[in-house]
């Protein structure tokens, strides 16, 4: 599905954000949290999850069109976002 939207995210310094990396290397930022009793995030083969700790405030403008993934646990990740937009961040990547 293609959605024509203009969406800007602002995250404070020190915040941890979740990013999923698809099998082609594109990154998608966590936008919507699933329910309180949600299951763990299940990713397809070849996908990974990355936890990013922001050293500086981060303002991200999602692309238009934005690709949106809704996972069975209710989480939503959107993007793709560029690696350069994560300046001032440290990260840890975990495979599936």
Radius of gyration: 13 Å
- Biggest sheet descriptor: 6 strands, antiparallel
- Write down the overall mean pLDDT: 81
Task: Supply the helix-strand structural class.
Answer: mainly beta
Task: Provide a count of the helices.
Answer: 0
* Low-pLDDT windows of residues: 92-96
How many domains comprise the coordinates? 1
Helical amount among residues, as a percent range? under 10%
| Order of adjacent strands in the largest pleated sheet | 6-7-3-2-4-8
Order of helices and strands: EEEEEEEE
The count of strands amounts to: 8
Portion of residues in beta strands equals over 45%
Large-scale geometry: globular
In whole angstroms, the N-to-C terminal distance is 25 Å
Give structural notes:
The protein has 96 residues and is mostly beta strands. It has one domain (8-95). It is 0% helix and 46% strand. It has no helices and eight strands. The chain has strands at residues 8-11, 16-21, 27-32, 48-54, 58-61, 67-70, 76-81, 89-95. Strands 6-7-3-2-4-8 form a six-stranded antiparallel sheet, with no helix packed on it. The protein has a two-stranded antiparallel ribbon with strand order 1-5. A hairpin with a 5-residue loop joins strand 6 and strand 7 (76-81). The chain is globular, with a radius of gyration of 13 Å. The two termini are 25 Å apart.
């Amino acid at each position: 599905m293609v959605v024509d939207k203009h969406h800007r995210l602002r995250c404070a310094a020190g915040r941890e954000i979740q990013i999923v990396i698809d099998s082609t290397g594109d990154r998608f930022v966590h936008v919507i949290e699933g329910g309180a009793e949600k299951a763990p995030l299940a990713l397809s083969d070849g996908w990974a999850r990355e936890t990013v700790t922001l050293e500086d405030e981060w303002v991200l403008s999602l692309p238009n069109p934005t690709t949106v993934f809704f996972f069975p646990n209710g989480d939503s990740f959107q993007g793709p976002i560029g690696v350069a937009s994560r300046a001032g961040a440290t990260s840890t990547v975990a495979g599936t």
